[in-house]
Amino acid sequence: MQIKFFAYLRDYTGCKITDFPYQEDIYQLAHALCDKYGDKLRGKMLSPDGEDLGEEIIILVNGRHVAHLGGIHAKLVPSDIVSIFPVVAGG
């Protein structure tokens, strides 16, 4: 599966795009990515207890927001493209 990182998340991961081993759902993917890339990513990607997505992250699977796919328990397939963005605020 392909993972795309945007904005400052690229600094945390050291890459824009990576081919990542298939994970069954967003929960497993988020934890695997945080294990690989560290605590800075974990602090943005997951809630403090690790049971939900963080409030400062947007995840799209094939262009669809995970909130519409089952949230952190959204199922994945090996051909999915997962895009991970930080929430952007401003005006």
TrEMBL record:
Pfam families: ThiS (PF02597). PANTHER family: SULFUR CARRIER PROTEIN CYSO, SULFUR CARRIER PROTEIN SLR0821-RELATED. This is Molybdopterin synthase sulfur carrier subunit. Signal peptide: none annotated. It comes from Faecalicatena orotica.
